[in-house]
Amino acid sequence: MTQAAFDGYATAYDSWFMENNQLFESELKLYKKVLGDVRDKRILSVGCGSGLFESMLTDAQIEGIEPSRDMGEIAQKRGVEMIQFGTIEQVELEEAAYDVIYFNGSSSYIEDLTAPYEKCRRALKPNGRLILLDVPKESGFGFMYLLAKQVGTFDHDDLRDVLPQLPYPLELCVHGIWHSTEEKIDVLKAIGFEQFEFYQTLLNHPMYANEQVEEVIEGYKQGGYVAIIAHK
Ligand SMILES: C[S@@+](CC[C@H](N)C(=O)[O-])C[C@H]1O[C@@H](n2cnc3c(N)ncnc32)[C@H](O)[C@@H]1O
């Protein structure tokens, strides 16, 4: 993805979550669940965007990297300590420095995940955790975004009456490269991770995802938003 792909979309991105507030709360529950106790931990958010999720944590100091200056400057204002405006591929990370490194939705904009995840593994302390939260390619959301990307619109006969009221901004779908959860597990195993935990939310069809705040359950085969925790 080019450095500027999210530039100009910070407001659209945040507004979408604000308008889909039940969906946001479901994702936030998953985010908080997998981060766990954040006090006194050194934590890095890769592709922190506008720092919307980070701003919901009251007791954490989160470091961030973000290629979009637009998004990253908002994250800074929200308290994220930006270590670099750039991509994970460009940044140099200190070795064995972090308790947690996470990608919240950012893996879905990175084609080759191996080198970025490997870099993060080296930057984790022993017993550190790499956490990947995403829309899985195989989920209802994944199918919907891929179809919209292919046809270049949400306004398509095949999508009529089956879409959420406010679908994700099309401009951001167009840049997405969704990966399946198992594809990411394979990458993680290939670079040496052996121990995993999985949690998921957004179990309802996308069309109904904003009707209620959903629970977080274990596993990865049902959810529209899935977290992989890989233990170093
Ligand atoms: C879906 S947004 C998620 C933003 C934020 N983490 C959140 O949850 O609100 C994906 C983010 O990944 C960033 N991104 C895309 N490619 C990246 C890369 N190669 N390295 C780091 N971040 C990247 C984008 O600029 C964007 O802010």
What does this molecule look like?
This protein is of the alpha/beta class. Helices cover 31% and strands 20% of the residues. It has helices at residues 10-19, 21-35, 69-77, 114-123, 140-151, 170-174, 181-190, and strands spanning 43-46, 62-65, 81-84, 98-104, 124-134, 195-201, 217-218, 225-231. Helix 4 links the parallel strand 4 (98-104) and strand 5. The model has no long low-confidence stretch (mean pLDDT 94). It binds S-adenosylmethionine. S-adenosylmethionine (SAM) is lined by residues 1, 6, 46-49, 52-53, 65-68, 71, 87-89, 104-106, 109-110.
Largest sheet: 8 strands, mixed
Give the tally of β-strands: 8
Which small compounds were modeled alongside the protein? S-adenosylmethionine
Which ranges are low-confidence, i.e. pLDDT below 50, for 5 or more consecutive residues? none
Number of helices: 7
The SSE order reads HHEEHEEHEHHHEEE
Question: Can I get a quick summary?
Answer:
By secondary structure, the protein is an alpha/beta fold. The protein has seven helices and eight strands. It has one domain (10-231): Rossmann fold (3-Layer(aba) Sandwich).
Throw out a few tags for this protein:
single chain, 232 residues, alpha/beta, Rossmann fold, eight-stranded mixed beta sheet, 7 helices, 31% helix, 20% strand, globular, binds S-adenosylmethionine
